[in-house]
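User: Working on a comparison across species. This one is Gelatinase A from Vigna unguiculata. Can you predict its structure so I can line it up against the others?
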Amino acid sequence: MKSYHFAFILLFFLLLHQSLSANFRVPYSSTAKAKKNTRGKTFENQWKREIWPPQPYAPQKKIEGLSLIKNYFVEFGYLQSFAPFSDFLDRGTILAIQNFQQRFNLQVTGNLNNQTLNQILLPRCGVPDKNFPHGFIDNEALPNYRNQWFAKRNLTYGFLPESEIPESMRKVFRDSFTRWAKAIEVLNPTETTYENADIKVGFYSFAEGVPEQLYGISSVRLEAGSNVSIGEIRLDGSYYWAVPSENDSVSWKEGVLDLESVAMHEIGHLLGLDHSFMEESVMYPYILPSQQRKIQMSNSDKNNILQQYSDAMSGYGGSWGVLVTTTLSLGFGYVVLLDSLWI
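Assistant: Here's the predicted structure for Gelatinase A from Vigna unguiculata:
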């Protein structure tokens, strides 16, 4: 990891406390009426207007809006560069596009074709896919494989009171924690108060300018003056989050996401799993149009989590502890928390 990337992550952590409000009630509905997110100018519309249809590669060709793509690739680990970004299509960007296409089993062209742009525009988790620090920086860390962050088997979780999360949604998280626990066979997750929880769950109002495709993140921080790690799952409250009884209403294009699928994914991060590039995995970073509800672990998910906890119990990688990622500071906006949230 080059030093400039560490500096970028540090800036990202410093911005963490500035502009995300927790006083946001999750907009759930028993009918889950479809309602498109209207958080400013959408990322999708901006990209489609500026760089759609894709333009063929020419050395140092200027493509309006390409700086947004470069920023996206830096944030998720595909391009090692530093802002400000230009709109010129350089060799590094072409290699980043090719790497992204290879990872997600797309046609490898090095061009921003429709298939690649459609993938980028899907809702996704805010945790980077690759090339990020594997330790704590300013008491914050990003989730990564083979780090065990909970020094206990009796794992607790709680819900942010300000989110006023209804029982139907709490049950979704209970079921998701239980599903992971059954796969691991050594964890005993139980619900407790938000203040006392190892993992804290809440819905937030993301800052203006954050693309609606970023549905949320999971993260870990060290409590001040101690080695106690606290996990957090922060989801975008401007989406409609459908519970299992509302499966028929799920539509990412209409801003309605399946809560249980996302809960399974974010809990997996906090238990120490990276993103998977296998579409059947619950750790796949994007919500695919053909798999908008995905709650059953694939064989690879089960093998990875069993290996993770087998290594931890045998002493691999040191003691257990909780990892939570810090929010992702995208160049087009920041997802951050108010200072009052940090307890």
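For your comparison, note: Confidence is low (pLDDT under 50) at residues 1-43, 316-343.

User: Helpful, thanks.
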